[in-house]
Amino acid sequence: MSLAFAVFKEKSRLKALLDHFSIIDDPRVPWRVAHPLREVLLLVVCASMADCDHFDAIAAWGKENIGFLRRYLPYEHGAPGGRWLTLLMNRVDPPMRYD
């Protein structure tokens, strides 16, 4: 398999993941959103794969790896903090998290 094909295939998987994130309802008031749900979910998935097991660790990973995250989404306001992640993730529809 060529490198170009591998990169294309990887981008397709990432695009599919980001497209899936787009269909999840965001419970927040749109004009007050500093961290779009897609950005938050990408952060949580990537940090979880990097063995971060609580929201403070996820937030710290996001701050340390913001350059990596910005390769895929803008993160205009940087990575959210741990307390904020806890509040938002508890508002996302629970059946979506545990199915």
TrEMBL record:
It comes from the Bacteria. InterPro entries: Transposase_11-like (IPR051698), YbfD_N (IPR032806). Residues 18-94 form the H repeat-associated protein N-terminal domain. It holds the Pfam family DDE_Tnp_1_assoc. This is Transposase family protein. It comes from Methylosinus sporium.
